[in-house]
Design a protein that fits this description.
Length: 233
């Protein structure tokens, strides 16, 4: 999907949430691209939002450019943002951006740090959106590597280590061993990447040697939040 279309969706959502004074930050592949990466493309947006699911659905329910995708989990709500709502063009998949929001009532003091990053869209103009700091992006991507075999996740970890390695060495000291072990089992190439941060992986891999990794892990409540280093109740 074209980057400016994703930017438009991010700008549209951020403006709505900012208007309602709801803390939020973008993470995942789109956020990594927003830091300047160019090693891949992204097809959707991942957003951590400090508000209950009911608040988000209420805010977006009367907006014709936001189409909710029903889901039963209370820590997650997904929408399609319809970029064609600004014109008379017929509704087509190429005009739809998947936006996945991981919601919850978070303590402001413990909400992940972010930096305002300039995005330029085609229809929404140019403005700032909050992009999660590199330590949050790194934790999130390593957690993704531990739960699935998607190649781009490992590429993202590699990029983050190559770009922010010195800063990430502090984060590396507190990584969950099970997460490290599962990530390396699914993506053996990460053994060398994590070694650059001083992370030994042999013991971590041994600790999860019996874990089944043939299929992606089934998402559980708050898994993504915890993977970003945030506790939710």
């Amino acid at each position: 999907m074209h980057q400016t279309t994703l930017n438009d969706a991010a700008l549209a959502l951020s403006r709505v949430l900012t208007f309602h004074r709801i803390h939020h930050t973008f993470f995942g592949g789109f956020a990594i691209l927003a830091t300047g990466a160019d090693h891949r493309e992204s097809k959707d947006l991942d957003v951590l939002v400090s508000a209950p699911k009911s608040t988000i659905t209420h805010i977006l329910s009367d907006r014709r450019d936001w189409l909710e995708i029903p889901h039963s989990r209370e820590d997650y709500v997904a929408y399609f943002w319809n970029s064609s709502s600004f014109s008379t063009s017929p509704l087509e998949p190429k005009h739809m951006v998947l936006v996945e929001m991981f919601v919850g009532q978070h303590d402001k003091a413990h909400f992940p740090e972010s930096r305002n990053t300039v995005l330029k869209g085609c229809k929404m103009g140019t403005s700032y959106v909050p992009i999660a700091n590199e330590d949050v992006l790194f934790r999130g991507k390593l957690n993704a590597c531990a739960s699935r075999g998607k190649r781009s996740d490992a590429q993202d970890v590699d990029y983050l280590v190559a770009t922010y390695g010195e800063r990430l060495k502090v984060v590396a000291k507190s990584l969950d061993k099970r997460t490290v072990g599962l990530a390396v089992r699914r993506h053996p190439e990460l053994r060398k990447v994590l070694a650059e941060l001083g992370v030994g992986t042999r013991g971590a891999v041994w600790g999860v040697r019996k874990a089944k990794i043939e299929a992606p892990a089934v998402p559980q409540m708050w898994d993504v939040h915890r993977g970003l280093g945030l506790e939710c109740v």
